[in-house]
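no rush on this but wanted to send it before i forget. theres a chain ive been looking at and ive put its sequence and its fold in token form underneath. please have a look and point out which stretches look like helix strand or loop to you. thanks a lot i owe you, the record is right below:
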Amino acid sequence: MRSMTLMVALLVASPAALPMLAQDVPGKWSVDIHSCSPTLTGNYHGTQNGQAVNFDLVNDLGLAKNGSTPGASLEYQGPRFGLELSMDTQKYDGDHTVTEPVVISGQKFNAQARLVTDLKLTTTTFNWTIRALKFTNAWVGIDLGVRSTQLDLNAVGTNYLAGQSVPVTFKSPLPMPQVGLSVGFHVLEERLIVKGYYHYLGYKGATYYHSGVDVRFFPLRWLGLRAFTDTENWKIPNNSLASDLQVGLNRSGTGFGVVFRF
């Protein structure tokens, strides 16, 4: 919340700062290819689509990072607004003997059952940034958009006593509005560009935030290197977004990429 407070303070800065406002310059497009393998923790408890669920991604399933496919983004950064469209996919694997009953899509696995699982996490982002305040080498913006996170879980469980393997799948779409603030600045004739953002949403006891920092350095005008860090958190209690479903997820990681600017 301190980051949000700082951004709000910048957004409502005194009129004395107006002489520092920058003149409009032509916008630039960029395409980047990047890789990011964030940690993923969390749990599901309750009922989804009429089927019981009760499992923890790490404690029950033993899921751990197993790499990612290259992600890509298309961006426009102009004098008055910016646009971002990006997509990422990560994979997680687990092989774990559970110590207490686990339920996935209505299928129950008792203690001592072995669960072999894989999970694919696909994230698609569309974001529109209105640059509300512009300065010579910096800006403060309002972010509006949507970020869709899709979890696709496949598991094969073998109960200790029965000895029979049972396959099961679980899907969890998590579309979230992106509402918040962002700040950015550039130096060295736009060869070094830094952006930070904080998005927050609260509704009926459910909370979500998404924050990050993106740094880009262009040794050539058209070619640059990118490093970024990104954190997301979902806390969805029972009777908030769903009548009988509790979800808690945390996603955090650092990525690197190559940027082509034109």
In short: The two ends are 36 Å apart (CA to CA). The first helix runs from residue 2 to 11. The first strand starts at residue 28 and ends at 36. The chain has one domain: 2-7+27-261.
